[in-house]
Design goal:
The chain is an alpha+beta fold. It has two domains: 1-30; 31-241, no CATH class. It contains five helices and twelve strands. Strands 1, 2, 3, 4, 5, 6, 7, 8, 9, 10, 11 and 12 form a twelve-stranded mixed beta sheet that branches. It is globular, with a radius of gyration of 21 Å.
Length: 244
């Protein structure tokens, strides 16, 4: 083998190794598992249509730092995980669920759920703050002016808060005995699968730079104060905007 051929062969092997390493770094931490169900806002699904996603793929949840190393390109620079120390409760679960779907035109839609959850002695969710960020092609809030609504469909208070400038955050605060269903992803270790949990929660919803952000939070009666709700709102705003 001539020196020139040897150099070309070595260069080809090196290039292929770098390419494979790049794929491994992004994909090695993502493990596909079985799953069922979708999460979305019951109140805003008529405009964002996130309940109609098809060809869904579920991935095993990761710790937040681990997920940030393998996050899809569409999300990695637009996610600003919150400092859990600032929460009014101490979460004993902090994880991220990635769920993807694919349209007929092979357009992949990514959804990441950031879970901050505290369980009681019976391993049941006691308090949580859960934020889902989903890629969308258009601003669903341009389809209907929710600003004129003061209540959701079950009569709970609907507040128009501010994300930044004239961009709204809609805040559903439970003020009646009933509420719209709030769902989130949960991993079953024994079955190695993901399912959805249906419960009730105060909710936050906004659109910013090609993504919808939907959060649900549940606090104990002791922590469920107006001050706590304002703190949660600020954390949600920081998650969307970062340090702006």
């Amino acid at each position: 083998m001539t020196l020139n051929k040897f150099f070309k062969t070595t260069l080809s092997i090196f290039t292929m190794s770098v390419m494979l390493l790049g794929c491994t770094n992004k994909e090695a931490g993502l493990v596909e598992v079985q799953g069922d169900g979708l999460t979305y806002s019951e109140y805003f699904k008529s405009v964002d249509e996130l309940d109609t996603r098809e060809n869904v793929t579920y991935f095993k949840p990761l710790l937040i730092d681990d997920f940030m190393n393998v996050a899809p390109d569409s999300l990695e620079n637009e996610i600003h995980p919150i400092d859990s120390v600032k929460l009014i409760f101490e979460p004993n679960e902090q994880s991220v669920y990635l769920v993807t779907s694919e349209h007929k035109k092979s357009n992949v839609q990514n959804q990441a759920q950031f879970t901050y959850l505290s369980k009681d002695s019976y391993e049941q969710a006691e308090e949580f703050f859960i934020i889902s960020v989903t890629d969308v092609k258009e601003n669903p809030l341009e389809k209907y002016d929710f600003s004129k609504e003061k209540q959701d469909t079950l009569g709970n208070e609907l507040r128009r808060e501010v994300l930044i400038e004239d961009t709204p955050i809609f805040h559903q605060v439970k003020t009646t005995n009933g509420s719209l269903v709030y769902t989130y992803y949960q991993y079953n270790k024994d079955k190695n699968e993901i399912a959805t949990v249906a419960t009730s929660a105060n909710e936050l919803y906004t659109y910013y730079k090609g993504r919808t952000y939907h959060a649900g939070y549940q606090l104990t009666n002791e922590n469920n104060t107006e001050k706590a709700r304002e703190e949660i709102l600020n954390l949600f705003r920081a998650f969307v905007l970062g340090h702006k």
